[in-house]
Protein backbone atom coordinates (compact mmCIF):
# COMPACT_ATOMS: atom_id res chain seq x y z
CA UNK A 1 0.00 0.00 0.00
CA UNK A 2 1.14 3.49 -0.79
CA UNK A 3 0.06 6.17 1.65
CA UNK A 4 1.39 9.11 -0.36
CA UNK A 5 0.32 8.08 -3.86
CA UNK A 6 -3.00 9.86 -3.90
CA UNK A 7 -1.36 13.26 -3.51
CA UNK A 8 0.37 12.85 -6.87
CA UNK A 9 -2.91 12.48 -8.74
CA UNK A 10 -3.98 15.63 -10.54
CA UNK A 11 -7.23 15.54 -12.50
CA UNK A 12 -6.79 16.55 -16.13
CA UNK A 13 -8.86 19.69 -15.88
CA UNK A 14 -6.93 21.00 -12.89
CA UNK A 15 -3.69 20.44 -14.74
CA UNK A 16 -5.04 22.91 -17.27
CA UNK A 17 -5.47 20.41 -20.07
CA UNK A 18 -8.85 19.84 -21.55
CA UNK A 19 -9.45 16.98 -23.99
CA UNK A 20 -11.03 19.56 -26.30
CA UNK A 21 -8.07 21.97 -26.20
CA UNK A 22 -7.12 21.29 -29.82
CA UNK A 23 -10.71 21.71 -30.95
CA UNK A 24 -10.88 25.07 -29.17
CA UNK A 25 -7.74 26.23 -30.98
CA UNK A 26 -9.22 25.25 -34.34
CA UNK A 27 -12.54 26.91 -33.52
CA UNK A 28 -10.65 30.12 -32.77
CA UNK A 29 -9.01 29.83 -36.21
CA UNK A 30 -12.26 29.36 -38.12
CA UNK A 31 -14.59 31.66 -36.23
CA UNK A 32 -13.80 34.69 -38.37
CA UNK A 33 -13.90 32.81 -41.65
CA UNK A 34 -15.76 34.85 -44.25
CA UNK A 35 -16.09 32.05 -46.78
CA UNK A 36 -18.23 29.76 -44.64
CA UNK A 37 -21.83 30.82 -45.04
CA UNK A 38 -24.10 28.10 -43.77
CA UNK A 39 -26.98 27.71 -41.32
CA UNK A 40 -26.42 25.06 -38.69
CA UNK A 41 -28.47 23.45 -35.96
CA UNK A 42 -27.03 25.18 -32.92
CA UNK A 43 -27.48 23.79 -29.44
CA UNK A 44 -27.83 26.19 -26.55
CA UNK A 45 -24.67 26.63 -24.51
CA UNK A 46 -26.70 26.41 -21.31
CA UNK A 47 -28.39 23.11 -22.12
CA UNK A 48 -28.98 20.77 -19.17
CA UNK A 49 -25.80 19.18 -17.77
CA UNK A 50 -26.97 15.63 -18.49
CA UNK A 51 -27.41 16.60 -22.15
CA UNK A 52 -23.82 17.85 -22.45
CA UNK A 53 -22.55 14.83 -24.35
CA UNK A 54 -25.44 14.83 -26.80
CA UNK A 55 -24.98 18.57 -27.32
CA UNK A 56 -21.30 17.97 -28.12
CA UNK A 57 -22.23 15.24 -30.58
CA UNK A 58 -24.61 17.65 -32.33
CA UNK A 59 -21.89 20.25 -32.74
CA UNK A 60 -19.49 17.69 -34.18
CA UNK A 61 -22.19 16.34 -36.51
CA UNK A 62 -22.78 19.84 -37.81
CA UNK A 63 -19.08 20.28 -38.56
CA UNK A 64 -19.65 17.67 -41.29
CA UNK A 65 -22.02 20.15 -42.94
CA UNK A 66 -19.28 22.78 -42.79
CA UNK A 67 -16.80 20.33 -44.33
CA UNK A 68 -19.20 19.71 -47.24
CA UNK A 69 -19.72 23.45 -47.67
CA UNK A 70 -15.96 23.97 -47.67
CA UNK A 71 -15.42 21.29 -50.29
CA UNK A 72 -17.83 23.04 -52.60
CA UNK A 73 -16.46 26.53 -51.99
CA UNK A 74 -12.84 25.57 -51.39
CA UNK A 75 -12.74 27.43 -48.05
CA UNK A 76 -9.47 28.70 -46.68
CA UNK A 77 -10.23 27.01 -43.34
CA UNK A 78 -11.10 23.53 -44.62
CA UNK A 79 -8.17 21.89 -42.81
CA UNK A 80 -9.09 23.49 -39.48
CA UNK A 81 -12.72 22.36 -39.81
CA UNK A 82 -11.54 18.87 -40.73
CA UNK A 83 -9.30 18.83 -37.63
CA UNK A 84 -12.24 19.78 -35.39
CA UNK A 85 -14.33 16.96 -36.81
CA UNK A 86 -11.50 14.43 -36.57
CA UNK A 87 -10.54 15.36 -32.98
CA UNK A 88 -14.16 15.26 -31.90
CA UNK A 89 -14.79 11.85 -33.36
CA UNK A 90 -11.57 10.46 -31.92
CA UNK A 91 -12.54 11.68 -28.46
CA UNK A 92 -15.97 10.14 -28.72
CA UNK A 93 -14.54 6.82 -29.93
CA UNK A 94 -11.83 6.73 -27.29
CA UNK A 95 -14.28 7.38 -24.51
CA UNK A 96 -17.01 5.22 -26.02
CA UNK A 97 -19.56 7.71 -24.88
CA UNK A 98 -22.85 5.98 -24.48
CA UNK A 99 -25.34 8.41 -23.10
CA UNK A 100 -28.83 7.22 -23.69
CA UNK A 101 -31.15 9.89 -24.91
CA UNK A 102 -32.78 11.58 -21.98
CA UNK A 103 -36.32 12.89 -22.32
CA UNK A 104 -34.94 16.32 -21.43
CA UNK A 105 -32.42 16.37 -24.27
CA UNK A 106 -33.29 17.53 -27.74
CA UNK A 107 -32.38 15.85 -30.99
CA UNK A 108 -29.88 17.87 -33.05
CA UNK A 109 -32.56 18.80 -35.59
CA UNK A 110 -34.73 20.29 -32.85
CA UNK A 111 -32.27 23.10 -32.22
CA UNK A 112 -32.66 26.43 -33.91
CA UNK A 113 -30.68 27.00 -37.08
CA UNK A 114 -28.17 29.77 -36.64
CA UNK A 115 -25.50 31.30 -38.78
CA UNK A 116 -21.93 30.09 -38.75
CA UNK A 117 -20.68 32.79 -36.36
CA UNK A 118 -23.33 32.05 -33.71
CA UNK A 119 -22.75 28.33 -34.16
CA UNK A 120 -19.02 28.69 -33.45
CA UNK A 121 -19.66 30.98 -30.46
CA UNK A 122 -22.03 28.46 -28.88
CA UNK A 123 -19.72 25.56 -29.72
CA UNK A 124 -16.88 27.35 -27.89
CA UNK A 125 -19.10 28.03 -24.86
CA UNK A 126 -20.19 24.40 -24.66
CA UNK A 127 -16.61 23.16 -24.85
CA UNK A 128 -15.43 25.66 -22.25
CA UNK A 129 -18.20 24.48 -19.96
CA UNK A 130 -17.12 20.89 -20.50
CA UNK A 131 -13.52 21.85 -19.71
CA UNK A 132 -14.20 23.52 -16.37
UniProtKB/TrEMBL annotation:
TM helices/strands, residue ranges: none
Keyword Secreted: yes
Domain of life according to the entry: Eukaryota
Location in the cell: Secreted
Cellular component terms per the entry's GO annotation: extracellular space
UniProt GO BP: immune response; neutrophil activation; positive regulation of cytokine production; positive regulation of immune response; positive regulation of T cell proliferation
Keywords tagged on the record: Cytokine, Disulfide bond, Secreted, Signal
Principal cellular location given in the protein's record: secreted
Coiled-coil segments on the chain, per record: none
InterPro entries per UniProt: 4_helix_cytokine-like_core, IL-15, IL-15/IL-21_fam
MF GO annotations: cytokine activity; cytokine receptor binding
Family note: Belongs to the IL-15/IL-21 family.
PANTHER family found in the cross-reference section: INTERLEUKIN-15, INTERLEUKIN-15-RELATED
Protein name: Interleukin
Species in which this protein is naturally found: Peucedramus taeniatus (Olive warbler)
Gene encoding the protein: Il15_1
Amino acid sequence: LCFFCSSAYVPKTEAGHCKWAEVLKDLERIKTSKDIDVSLYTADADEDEECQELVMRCFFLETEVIIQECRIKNCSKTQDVWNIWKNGNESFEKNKLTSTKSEKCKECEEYEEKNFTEFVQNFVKVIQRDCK
